[in-house]
Design a protein that fits this description.
This protein has helices at residues 2-19, 126-131, and strands at 30-33, 37-39, 45-52, 58-70, 73-79, 83-86, 89-92, 97-104, 114-122, 141-148, 159-166, 169-175, 182-190, 198-206, 211-216, 225-231, 236-241. The protein folds into two domains: 2-148, Sandwich (Immunoglobulin-like), CATH 2.60.40; 159-241, Immunoglobulin-like. The relative contact order is 0.17. It is globular, with a radius of gyration of 20 Å. The chain contains two helices and 17 strands. Strands 2, 4, 5, 7, 9 and 10 form a six-stranded mixed beta sheet that branches. A four-stranded antiparallel beta sheet has the order 1-3-8-6, with no helix packed on it.
Length: 245
Amino acid sequence: MKERYLWKAVLCAAFLLIFQGLPSTAAAQVAISPVRVDLSDDHDKDVIRVSSQASSTTSYQVEVVAWSQSGGQREVYAPTEDILAVPPLFTLESGGEQVVRVGMLVDADPSKEKAYRMFITELAAPQEEESEMTGVNMRLRLGIPVFVAPRAIPNATLTHVESEYVEGQLFMHMKNSGNTHVRVSEVRFQTSDMDEPHVESAALYVLAGQAAPVQVGLPEGKRYGKVTLVTDTLGIVEYELAATN
């Protein structure tokens, strides 16, 4: 259990590095716009623009997978043919741009939003493939959320199910009983003796009808207090963590 949550913390940090635009040599090589795709029966296709900021020519692979959350994990993927992204392979020269077209191959679900991720993965150059046996070769992989809106009126909720502390890190299990996702962009923690809340940026989703852990940064020596989640759908959501939690 402990190892699972520590690994999720690492994954969360990696996604923050990509989506929040923090300094990173790899992330600086590619600019993507937009960073999310929203589709529906009335808007069943869109485009992603991928621009190269690297100094060399690089090839990329595009893949779309179904995205769910299970067993407290934010990222559970499975093959899908619901969404088509073309071209599946492309090469960018320095300063070049590629348009990736994304479209629905199935109708929207009548009652619940469908969630996917489109991965754009840097492919190794021939000389890099030859050197992989001698060391670790890190390549860029960007995951872009793709949502297909339900035909029903969208709604979302966020309920605190339980909390777990793992080596000083707090994980709040949040359940979304609605039919569309909730995106959490910021997490704040404050106790009565703190003048200002401890604030951390976030870039995580709780998908429709599912549950996911939200990591809360705790100042040293603090364990219980008020947690505030800043969301795009529900606005400010507050929870009081008492000593009984």
